[in-house]
Amino acid sequence: MACVDTLTPVSMAQCYLMRYRGARRLLHISALVLLPVLSACGEAASLGAPSPLVRETGASGCTTLNGPKGSTYNEFLGINNRLEIVGYAGVVGSYEFHPGKQFEIERYPGSVATELTSLNNEDVVAGWYEESNGKIYGLTEWEGIWTSYSGPHAGDRATRILGINDSNEVVGYYESRQGIDHAFASHADRKFRTIFRSSTNFVATAINDRGQIVGWETVASGATEGWLLEGKRFTNLVYPGAVVTQPSGINESDEIVGSYEDTSGNTHGFILTKPLIAPHWQEFDEPHASGETILAGINGRDDLVGYYQNGAGRIVAFFCR
Question: For residues 37 and 133, is the Cβ–Cβ distance under 8 A?
Fold first, then answer.
């Protein structure tokens, strides 16, 4: 069964109840309104059999995993407290990975490309998809119910959701017709809110359950710097000596993860603790990395996910506890 609607709260509830009557909770899609374009009740496109784990666990406590069968590379992009992970695998596409189960390949209905970037503890995943005409929209999905999101202007080129919290508040960015990136947040008041700052490109990447948002921006000098927004207060986040700092995740303990580029052009992961009180930066390189290391996500238990480049030039996903 598939339900396609204009995403009014009533029609979405009817769509859900027809398929999941008797379930204990209803995903409040209406709380994620971001100029919705389309909603569909559908199924995952296919299931991918799990590849053997490549265990390179050492003192770091990190384990690397192959992607679904047939993939050419693998990236872990987000993790929740139940250790469920979203990622992207070359050739195969986006997936959800449940410990001890199969990779579940996910594609937005009718799309030519889909990327899942984040998930919360309520089984809602978020990301973006591309249509055959090249237009890119944000998305959320829960139990086969897909919801599409577009930016605030008819001429916007793309909308991508990069983060979601347990209140189903989402953050990301939309690209204007001029090619400028603008950060946004969609809060529980159901209103689309652009996050403004005097920078060229401004991107929101993650939000925690306290409503704190992290992201990065291109400043006047051309450098890329991170930021943390709490309420109406911005705090700049720049890894010491870095030319690029890009936060990608934040948990409820104010622990922030991301990546930075040093003056030699090398990319490393980082962990930042106590950003508002006594900032402490820690470099993070996956022990088996021969190239870049990207820390993409952190959950409330301080588990980490990301990906790195190995000696053969392959991109490999990792999970650290």
Answer: no
Which 8-state DSSP code applies to residue 42?
Answer: -
* Rounded CA separation 229/316 (Å): 31
Q: Is residue 52 exposed (0-12), middle (13-18) or buried (19+ Cβ within 10 Å)?
A: exposed
Structure tokens at 301: 């238990």
Phi/psi of residue 259, each to 5°? -140, 155
Q: Which two tokens stand for residue 100?
A: 């001890």
Q: What's this model's pTM, rounded to 2 decimal places?
A: 0.83
With contact defined as beta carbons under 8 Å apart, do 139 and 129 qualify?
Answer: yes
CATH number at residue 180: 2.120.10
Q: Flag whether 248 is in a domain.
A: yes
Decide if 1 is inside a domain. no
Residue with tokens 């809110």: 193
pLDDT 10s digits, 287-318: 889 999 999 999 999 999 999 999 999 999 99
